[in-house]
Amino acid sequence: MLTEEMIPPELLIGTEIAFTDISTHFVMLLRQFAPYGYHNAKPQFLTHHVFTAGRPVIVGKNHLKLRLRHGTTIVDAIGFNLGDLLEMCSANTPLSIVYSIEETTQQRGKAMMQLYIKDIRPTEQAQNDIVYKSLPDIVKDKTILPNLEELVVVPVDSSLE
Fold it and tell me: For the whole model, what pTM was predicted?
């Protein structure tokens, strides 16, 4: 018999992006969706074929701190309570990560960005594990967005970039 504990948790992923998409302008746009909470989850993103840049370390009790490289772009990241994934992240294996983007304390007057990792898997495994739901499926699934009455899709103005 299949029990609730046997069903893997689901992560709602906003979209798949490249690290080159992460900019101060992009973070500014994300800020406009705040405040985040129960009925307004912080957007989570997916990036495939990510490699570690340098050596990942454990900080605090069990938090994975690392720098990640996607193409030529390198970003800082932390995975809270993901220290058990240190060995996997230390190998030179392409990874797929699900994360949110956070602004950290300013350094020399400049805001820094950091990824808060929610899940990490080898890309080969992740591409088999990830099930994409279409927008109509998400709208119908009241467990994902329980109070969604209507969805407004706003086209992105490319002149803002």
Answer: 0.74
Domain boundaries, the chain: 11-131
3-state per-residue secondary structure call for the chain: CCCHHHCCCCCCCCEECCHHHCCHHHHHHHHCCCCCECCECCCCEEEEEEEECCCCEEECCCEEEEEEEECCEEEEEEECCCHHHHHHHHCCCCEEEEEEEEEEEEECCEEEEEEEEEEEEEHHHHHHHCCCCCHHHHHHCCCCCCCCCCCCCCCCCHHHC
Please provide the average confidence, as pLDDT, over all residues in the chain. 78
CATH number of 11-131: 2.40.50.140
Query: Tokens 């340098």 correspond to what residue?
Result: 54
Burial of 79 (0-12, 13-18, 19+ CB in 10 A): buried
For residue 92, pLDDT beyond 60: yes
